[in-house]
Amino acid sequence: MQIRTVYRGPNLKRHGSANAWLVAILLILTVLLFFKMMDGLPGPLLNPDAQSRPVTARGDLAEDEQATIALFKAASGSVVHINTAGLRRDRVSLNVMEIPQGSGSGFVWDHDGHVVTNYHVIQGAEVARVILEDDDNPYTARLVGAAPDKDLAVLKIDVPKSKLSPIPIGKSSDLQVGQKVFAIGNPFSLDQTLTTGVISGLGREIMSVTQRPIQDVIQTDAAINPGNSGGPLLDSAGLLIGVNTAIYSPSGAYAGIGFAVPVDTVNVIVPQLIRSGKIDRPGLGVALWSDTHVQRLMERNSLPRAGALVRDVARGSAAEKAGIRPTQERDGRILIGDLIIAIDGTPINEQRDLFRSLEGHQVGESVTVTVQRAEEQIDLQATLQALPSG
After folding, report:
1. Positions marked catalytic
2. Which of 23, 64, 151, 312 is a good FRET partner for 8, with 20 to 30 A between their CA atoms?
3. Which pTM does this prediction carry?
4. How many Cβ atoms are within 10 Å of 182's Cβ, its own excluded?
5. Which residues contact 139 (CB under 8 A, 6 or more apart)?
6. What is the pLDDT of residues 122-133, one digit of tens each?
7. Which residues have a Cβ under 8 Å from the Cβ of 160 and sit 6 or more positions away?
8. By CB neighbour count within 10 A (0-12 exposed, 13-18 middle, 19+ buried), where does 133 fall?
9. Could you read off the pLDDT of 346-379 as tens digits, one per residue?
10. Rounded Cα gap, residues 12 and 16, in angstroms
C-alpha cells in the first residue's frame, strides 16, 4: 500500500481564533492602562469655586507713552474722515443716487471751515462729506480749489467755529532723518488711527497724478495704508510737518515706505487755493515730446544729446516771445524743434528736469533757456508766465 501525503495549507480557522484573542488582550491592556493614567490625575477637571485672579498694579505709563497719548488727544480733534461718492440716475425711477467711491483723511486748516486733503482723495468725486471727531454728522463739503501737480486740495464745510480745531503748523526745512513722526488718519475707514515711526529719508521725489514730480517729499516708516491719504504727519511736538500722500508697495499694501508732501509746500499752496482756487504755476507755454520719442530720435542720430524736445509753442506765450521754435512739418519733412538742454545753467536731460527747474522760480521771473538747435547751442531769455492750474 502506498501512503499519499496531501498538503492542505494552514489551518485558517485556528489562526483566526488566535488573532482574535490577541486583539482582545491588547484592547484590555489598553483600557487598563488608560484607567491607571486617569487614576493618576490630580482631582476633578472642574472647580466650581474658580475666581478671577487679582490684577497686578502696573504703575505709571512710561514718559514716551504719556507723550504719545497726549499728542494724539491734542491732534485728533483736527483730523477728519472724508467719504466721496459719484452720482448716478436710476434708469427706472429717474432718481439720482449716490454711489460710494472712496474714503480718505484730511485736517482742519482754519476756523473758516477749510479742510486740506490730497487731490487724489476727491479726484473724480461729485460728492464729498467730512466727518469731524466726536461728531457722527457728515457735513457736505464744497471744493475750494485743487493743485493736482502737488496732490493737494482744499474743501470747505459750514460748521460752527466752536466745532473746528485747526491743526498747528510746523516746518519741514529743518527736519532730520531719525526724528519721530506720528501719522493720524482713517486707514480702511477705521476712524482716528495713530501710527508711529521715524523719518526714513528726506528730499525724495514722487510723481503726482499729473505725472509731474513732487519734490522734497518726506519718507517715513510710519504705517500708511489706503485711507490714510490726506491725513497729517506730525512731529513729536504735535506740529504738522507733512501730508501723507502715497506708499511704495509692489502689493498695494503697507510695505514700510510712506511719503508725505512737506508742510513748507503745503503752507504755500493752500493759501493760494483759498485765495483764488488755483495756484500760479510758472512755465514757458510749450508742449513737449515724450522722453521716449526723444530717445528714439537720439538712437537715429538726429539729436546730439538728451533734453526736453519742444513739440509746440502756444501763441503769445513766454516761449514764443523768447524765440523758442516748435517742431514743424514742411513739404512733407519734419523739422525738429528746439531741444531745451538747460535752464539758468542747470542741465535738462528729460521732461521732469524741466518741471523741477521751473518750480524753483516765480511767475514774471526771467530765466535763461539754453536750447540745442541743429548743431548750435543758443541762449534765449524768457519771462515765465502763469500756466493753467492742473
Report:
1. 120, 151, 229
2. 23
3. 0.72
4. 21
5. 129, 130, 131, 132, 157, 158, 159
6. 998 889 999 998
7. none
8. middle
9. 999 888 889 888 887 888 999 999 999 888 899 9
10. 6
